[in-house]
UniProtKB/TrEMBL annotation:
<dbReference type="GO" id="GO:0004632">
    <property type="term" value="F:phosphopantothenate--cysteine ligase activity"/>
</dbReference>
<comment type="function">
    <text>Catalyzes two sequential steps in the biosynthesis of coenzyme A. In the first step cysteine is conjugated to 4'-phosphopantothenate to form 4-phosphopantothenoylcysteine. In the second step the latter compound is decarboxylated to form 4'-phosphopantotheine.</text>
</comment>
<feature type="binding site">
    <location>
        <position position="147"/>
    </location>
    <ligand>
        <name>CTP</name>
    </ligand>
</feature>
<dbReference type="GO" id="GO:0046872">
    <property type="term" value="F:metal ion binding"/>
</dbReference>
<dbReference type="GO" id="GO:0071513">
    <property type="term" value="C:phosphopantothenoylcysteine decarboxylase complex"/>
</dbReference>
<keyword id="KW-0436">Ligase</keyword>
<keyword id="KW-0456">Lyase</keyword>
<feature type="binding site">
    <location>
        <position position="161"/>
    </location>
    <ligand>
        <name>CTP</name>
    </ligand>
</feature>
<comment type="pathway">
    <text>Cofactor biosynthesis; coenzyme A biosynthesis; CoA from (R)-pantothenate: step 2/5.</text>
</comment>
<dbReference type="GO" id="GO:0015941">
    <property type="term" value="P:pantothenate catabolic process"/>
</dbReference>
<feature type="binding site">
    <location>
        <position position="113"/>
    </location>
    <ligand>
        <name>CTP</name>
    </ligand>
</feature>
<feature type="binding site">
    <location>
        <position position="165"/>
    </location>
    <ligand>
        <name>CTP</name>
    </ligand>
</feature>
<keyword id="KW-0460">Magnesium</keyword>
<keyword id="KW-0285">Flavoprotein</keyword>
<comment type="similarity">
    <text>In the C-terminal section; belongs to the PPC synthetase family.</text>
</comment>
<feature type="domain" description="DNA/pantothenate metabolism flavoprotein C-terminal">
    <location>
        <begin position="10"/>
        <end position="219"/>
    </location>
</feature>
<comment type="function">
    <text>Catalyzes two steps in the biosynthesis of coenzyme A. In the first step cysteine is conjugated to 4'-phosphopantothenate to form 4-phosphopantothenoylcysteine, in the latter compound is decarboxylated to form 4'-phosphopantotheine.</text>
</comment>
C-alpha cells in the first residue's frame, strides 16, 4: 500500500538508509560476508518513501529488487559504505543504519587468486571503521538510528551502543530467536530511545516493523520540533 499520511513530518526530509551485508575481499575469488539479507533495510526504505521521505538507499550486495522512487547507491565493502554514507550525511535529516557492516576485513587483499597449499591458511583481519560511531561524532541535527544484532544480553548491549555511538534510537533484536533477525520475513525488535524510553514490539513481518519504526521516527522528529 502506498500512502502518505497528511501530517507526516518525514515529508520532503532526506532519509539515508543503509542495508544488507558488506563484502570484504580476500582475493579475486573469495570474500568474507555475513548473513544479512537486506530485507529489513529495504522494507524501511519503502516505508520511508511511502511517508513522503526523499530516500537514498546505500546497499551492500543483496538479491533484492531496487525499490521504486528512491536513489540507490550500491556498495561492496565497509569502506565503500562509509564513503557513500559520508557523502550523503551533511544535508541528511535522518540516517538509519540497518546494514550489517563487517567489523573486520583481511589486512592484505591479494591481487591474484591464492592457490591452495598443504596445511592451514591463516588470514589476518583488521578492524573496519565504525560508520555509525563516526556519524555520532560528526552529527549536528541529523537523527541517527542504529540497529543492534545480538545473540544474548540484548538490553545491556543495546543501551551500550545507544551511548557509545551517540545514536537517537537503537533497534535491537536477538538473532537467535525464532522468526527474528537475519534472512527471515519477520522480526521482533525492541526500540531503545536516547531519552530512556524502551518500546518492545511484537513479532511482525519486516514490512510491519518498518512501518512502525518509520512512524516512531516521524514522531520523534515532531517532538524535536516542539
Ligand atoms: N555499524 C557501523 N559500522 C560498523 C559496524 C557496525 O555503522 N563497522 C553499525 C550497524 O550498521 C548497526 C550498529 O552499528 O546500526 C550496530 O551494529 P552491531 O554489529 O550490532 O554492533 P557493533 O558496534 O559492530 O558491535 P558488535 O558487533 O561487537 O556487537
Ligand atoms: Ca558488528
Amino acid at each position: 500500500v502506498h500512502f502518505t499520511p497528511p501530517s507526516s513530518s518525514l515529508a520532503g526530509k532526506k532519509i539515508v538508509i543503509t542495508a544488507g551485508p558488506t563484502q570484504e575481499t580476500i582475493d579475486p575469488i573469495r570474500f568474507f560476508t555475513n548473513r544479512s539479507s537486506g530485507k529489513m533495510g529495504y522494507a524501511l526504505t519503502k516505508a520511508a518513501r511511502d511517508f513522503g521521505g526523499n530516500v537514498t538507499l546505500i546497499s551492500g550486495p543483496t538479491s533484492l529488487e531496487k525499490p521504486d522512487g528512491v536513489s540507490v547507491v550500491n556498495v561492496k565493502s565497509a569502506q565503500d559504505m562509509y564513503e557513500a554514507v559520508l557523502a550523503e550525511f551533511s544535508d541528511a535529516d535522518v540516517v538509519i543504519k540497518t546494514a550489517a557492516v563487517a567489523d573486520y576485513r583481511p589486512r592484505v587483499v591479494h591481487e591474484q587468486k591464492v592457490k591452495k597449499k598443504d596445511g592451514d591458511w591463516v588470514i589476518e583481519l583488521e578492524r573496519t571503521v565504525d560508520i555509525l560511531k563516526t556519524l555520532g561524532e560528526k552529527k549536528e541535527s541529523q537523527f541517527l538510528v542504529g540497529f543492534a544484532a545480538e545473540s544474548q544480553e540484548v538490553e545491556t548491549y543495546a543501551q551500550k551502543k545507544l551511548k557509545e555511538k551517540n545514536a537517537d534510537m537503537i533497534v535491537a533484536n536477538n538473532v537467535t530467536e525464532e522468526g527474528a533477525g537475519f534472512q527471515t520475513d519477520t522480526n521482533r525488535v525492541t526500540v531503545y530511545f536516547k531519552q530512556g524510553d524502551v518500546k518492545p514490539l511484537p513479532l511482525m513481518t519486516k514490512d510491519e516493523v518498518a512501518h512502525r519504526l518509520i512512524m516512531m521516527i516521524s514522531e520523534q522528529l515532531e517532538k524535536g520540533r516542539e
